[in-house]
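Practice problem: predict the structure.
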Amino acid sequence: MRRNKTRNIIVGAALGLLILHLYKFSSDDKIAHLNVKEIRNQVRQLTKESSSVYSWPNCQQNNTAANITGFGSLPQNIQDFLYFQHCKHFPMLLDLPGKCGGANRSEEVFLLLVVKSSPTNYDRREVLRKTWAEERLSNGVWIRRVFISGTTGAGFEKERLNRLLQVEQQEYGDILQWDFSDTFYNLTLKQMLFLEWMERNCPNARFLFNGDDDVFAHTDNMVVFLQSLSDNNGSRHLFTGHLIQNVGPIRSVNSKYYIPEQVHKSESYPPYCGGGGFLLSGHTAKVIHHMSKSIPFLPIDDVYMGMCLAKAGLRPVSHIGVRTAGLRIPSDKSDPYNPCFYKEILLVHRFLPAQIYLMWNRIKDLNMPCGLT
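Answer:
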């Protein structure tokens, strides 16, 4: 009800401003009369766009999680995860309903770059916008970009970081932000919030790259690879990257990837691709979103993706060009950042911003000598 009222106010204000604007020009004899049909069409478009901006109330913690056996002995981050594990919706702070040209035109987006980025990582976002995540035509098809983020800090710090993202949004129009704590154990939440957004606003994008903001991604090579899939234009299953299989949860409490039995009882994980970066089709993105509605969240987002694929009877596959564990250099005497080692890959994890900037510019040099030593 409140959303509809707000939308009506926005549309009414837009209509008033539009009429005032046209009236101004008519007084200057730049137009002869008001084009009522044009006004109605523009207001109808505003209504359509504003109605696609969704927001949810804050999700409240489930205090009954404290009754789980052994809950009190779990680390605080695991306790927090269990308190909010049921939460699959959070208020949206920054939205881009027209990012893909509208839902009906989203098939024009060949590769949508979905980059996980915390609010503090401004320097990484700036470099990516100038390098591999630049929105552009590549080999005749469109690459688009979104950074997905939550919130960080509290009080004035949180306000400053939110304002930073707002300023970036005004300049670049590439931020999706929700009002949840942007932590490692909320990466799965971030991924599923994005897939929900995609279903509303970009449902027909052909392919997606999903990855971290500290990777070097050769997105031109990704386009060439995806275009080579003669039997898949994004409407069939694809999920490829650094394949990880025959592993299970880490039970060591000191590990970053610690998962206790209270979160995941099984001693095994299904096959999955490392979360540093992977490619998937629009079809598979929809499947994962659908499966997630009936699978409790797991903190490790790449494993959770594998769980959704397994439930759907699908498997991820390996791609030799995705190196989320780093690139092995053949000789200790070689420069590990020699661009010749990176010209044919799809992705390497991990790079500093300055390294990304330099590498991108060097591999774009068509006259760079490679294969001579």
